[in-house]
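Exam prep: given the inputs below (a chain plus zinc ion), describe the expected output before reading on.
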Amino acid sequence: MATAIQHRRDFEIEYGAVDELSPLIRRIECRNPGPFTFKGTGTYLVGRGQVAVLDPGPVVEAHLQAVLDALGPDEQLTHIFITHTHSDHSPGAKWLQERTGAKTYGHGPHGQVGPNDPNDKVDFSKYFTKEEKDRYDKEYEDLDPALKREGPDLEFRPDEKLDDDDEVAAEDGNWRLRAVWTPGHCSNHLCYSLEQESVLFTGDHIMAWATSVVGPPDGSMADYLASLRKLLARSEQRYWPTHGPSVDDPTTYVQSFLAHREEREEQILAFFSEKPATIADLVPGLYAAYDKRLWYPAAGSVYAHVLSMVADGRLRVAGGGDPKLTSTYESPR
Ligand SMILES: [Zn+2]
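Solution:
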């Protein structure tokens, strides 16, 4: 029996408008909707007076200007935090810094980029009907192509590197944020806890609208699962992800993610136990219910599972060699 994750996709936003979410939290949505970003990047303003921005998003000037315009006459942008170095989260930091002098914070520059072998790629194009290709091409046709992907941002370097449990506070004392290192989706991923409101900003680690993509080599399934368990030990009452609506029952929700991953693992093991096969053979069946564009990142997530199962001996590469995205895998028994 499949564990149903209770995703939430009810989410009304007006691009560029300031959503007042709580005494200390405001949010402005960037107009970069897509299969990986849902309605777009939600940029948070934390605090009143001296204000921190969390995940400025891509360099979309109308959006970043709206962030600056949200500040009242007595307010000042002093800190810029990023959850991780992906193109829909961090590039806007530089634009804001140039205009405000605010300092940037994050876990570090981006980790390893791309597969070790550039030819190690899956191709699902034969599964796309002409109608689907046309529809997908049209869906976001008025968007800049650079906004349609969630790739690494290789330029971001934080002024200050934050490690797990590091705390940063406004000089005027109106807010405090604590970094929670949560590798998995991305090796430098941080969540941020606003203990004053019992809220955790979860970036792309936990989202209400969808599961997180874990793509090796920078993403790691073992790290992701450990980072899910890490959240179970915490006490925040609400999560604010960078995309989509809030998570209001964090413990139940995170537990359902862990159960979902365990089931995926069993499905993957069962598939390769029948006969030697590739990840590209598995994904169309396993993700039949999903938008086919998501099969590519799904293949990455399956690969992440497979790597951890090769590491602990539950699977092996047929004929030996390094475990690649395109390798044939089999059960050792
Ligand atoms: Zn994202």
